[in-house]
Amino acid sequence: MSVIAISWWELALASVLVGALAACTYAARLAVAQELVIAAVRTVVQLALVGFLLETLFSLGGLHWVALMGAAMLVIAGREVTARQKRRFSRGWTYGIGTTSMFLSSFSVTVLALTVLIGPNPWYTPQYAIPLLGMMLGNTMTGVAVALDRLTDTAWQQREMIEARLMLGQPWSVAIADVRRDAMRAGMIPTINAMAAAGVVSLPGMMTGQILAGTAPALAVKYQILVMFLITVGTGFGTFAAVAAAGRRLFDRRERLRLDRLTEARNS
């Protein structure tokens, strides 16, 4: 089965539908029309640039170009994690924790999948490496951002209870255990829900794309199961590492709660 081409006028028709939705929300005074239009424009521009970059990258195919693309994706993901925080660690610690945890989890899981499970030749083939790394980073970014935001905000709200536990002689890890557990759960819920609903409530994006491109459904299902397991592992380890590092950062060497290391975002 060949792939059905999509013409420019069909994309234009889809954009007209988005414009109609924006007009309806504007008429109803829902205050989302401007954000909707901006998001649509960003989608077109960003995906067009990514398409151009990927075509160039696929033609080059060198490991250093793939590594450079991966590094750029990691830097942008770290910025997004930092931007989503209501309360951030000062001196760039939020960015450092976010990027380090995503690097350790997403890159290691991607390399493992490419070298052991999928096995393209060479293992860094851009057609496999970049989409897989993108899915790993995108989902891990969401988990890390949600977990860090929940951790710092809950610690701020429950600071009196945490300090009371410290005064009773509990170590910092016990005093903040409930907060860390809640943050870890919050970061993993989207991934767990996606796994639980896959194939029942919705068809995952990668599987849908492969089927539309003509891949046999049985093969598309195998790839989707593999990718979802990899995403879960990457998100889980990345979220765990971020929560562990951020939780320790909330205390000094004398195990005192140091909320002065947090700064509230100006746009919150």
From TrEMBL:
Pfam families: UPF0014
Keyword list, A-Z: Membrane, Transmembrane, Transmembrane helix
GO CC term, one of those recorded: plasma membrane
The keyword rRNA-binding is assigned to this record: no
Domain of life: Bacteria
Subcellular locations according to the entry: Membrane
Broad class of where this protein is predominantly found: membrane
PANTHER family for this protein: PROTEIN ALUMINUM SENSITIVE 3, UPF0014 INNER MEMBRANE PROTEIN YBBM-RELATED
Protein family: Belongs to the UPF0014 family.
UniProt protein name: Iron export ABC transporter permease subunit FetB
Taxonomic source organism: Sediminicurvatus halobius
Biological classification of the source: Bacteria, Pseudomonadati, Pseudomonadota, Gammaproteobacteria, Chromatiales
